[in-house]
Amino acid sequence: MNRSSLILVFIHATVCLYSTSLADDHKTLSYEAAVQRTEATPGFRNLKYIGLAFHNYHDLFRRFPPAVILGPDGKTPHSWRVELLPLIQQDQLKKLGIKDFHNRKNYNAAIAALGYDINKNWDSEENQAALQSIPDLYRHPSDEANSVHSGFYAIVGEGTAFDPAVIAQYKKYPEPWLMETAQIVESQSREPWTKPIDIWYSSDSVVPRLGGFTPGGFLTLSCVGAVHFIEDTVSPEAMRGYLTKDVSDAVSIPGIPVRFD
């Protein structure tokens, strides 16, 4: 079994344990109850497979993709959601007879074969058909069936998993920051899925409001590939620790870091 397959098993088996608060009474759910609640939350499957795509991408290019990638011309930006297309639509590529996209040139060609021109802006006429053909993984299950809005966004800013000034990569698996850092969050931001826009975070600003699809909380994907349900009652201080890669931050969110048992 290759490492990517192991990651998929790991994602399934290490769903976040979390706590619920009822007034001053704190009750920690059992592992089984936590798994049931998390897997029952719309968007869980989406994040699980998006996480697998991120790690497959790391296998190919020895890094996670940045939130915004420049095309071959060095100036035309496209989103990480577009960048991951060959990895989340491999069945479609096989139908097109494309099996080898394991170098940059072939990878770009695979994106083009899936209908997106990375040499053109996301809102160009050439990319309108791609906009309408949103992959199911990017549309939140609770959204309208004809929506072209992404339900999932990167957290971008200094010290985050998508720090624009840092290449996000790991040399061994897992590393502490992978387990304690948010990578993707669900949000009802209502942005077109091909638009290279995400959620900016700064230690000088308020913690962004996330979720909007599920009452009481929202799902996140950590950099290790685990899906976590975060309650709305989690403190801003705890969320700040989770949104950055600094492992010295106190992440007082039950279940983070994920357990390996």
Description:
The protein has about 260 residues and is an alpha+beta fold. The protein has one domain (about 5-245). The chain contains ten helices and nine strands. The protein has helices at about 5-15, 30-40, 45-60, 80-85, 85-90, 90-95, 105-115, 130, 175-180, 235-245; strands at about 20, 25-30, 70, 75-80, 150-155, 180-185, 200, 215-220, 225-230. Helix 1 runs antiparallel to helix 3 (about 45-60). The two termini are about 20 Å apart. Residues about 5-25 have low confidence and may be disordered.
Mean pLDDT, as a whole number?
86
Computed over alpha carbons, the radius of gyration is 18 Å
Helix content: 25-40%
Q: Compute the number of helices.
A: 10
**Helix/strand order, N-terminal first:** HEEHHEEHHHHHEHEEEEH
List keywords for this structure.
single chain; 261 residues; alpha+beta; five-stranded mixed β-sheet; two-stranded antiparallel ribbon; 10 helices; 9 strands; 14% strand
Secondary-structure map:
Layout: H1 3-13, E1 19-22, E2 25-28, H2 31-40, H3 44-61, E3 68-70, E4 77-79, H4 80-83, H5 85-88, H6 90-95, H7 104-113, H8 128-132, E5 152-156, H9 176-179, E6 182-186, E7 199-200, E8 217-222, E9 227-231, H10 236-243
Parallel strand pairs: 5-7
Antiparallel strand pairs: 1-2, 3-4, 5-6, 6-8, 8-9
